[in-house]
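Handout, section B. The chain below has 57 residues.
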Amino acid sequence: MSEYDKGYYASRAAEEAELALAADDPEVADAHRKLQRAYIERASVGDRPEEVAQIIG
């Protein structure tokens, strides 16, 4: 993942944190916090490799 992409995800995480704080509805705030965590994870870890099932014969 490029540094640009990591920066984008970090920026989105910050925006989601602000939206969570501004939300009046607890469910909406929770949804923003979940999105924030997902963006933080993506920014810090990058794309996760997909698991490929191996057929054992």
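Note. The chain is about 70% helix and 0% strand. Compare this with the example in section A.
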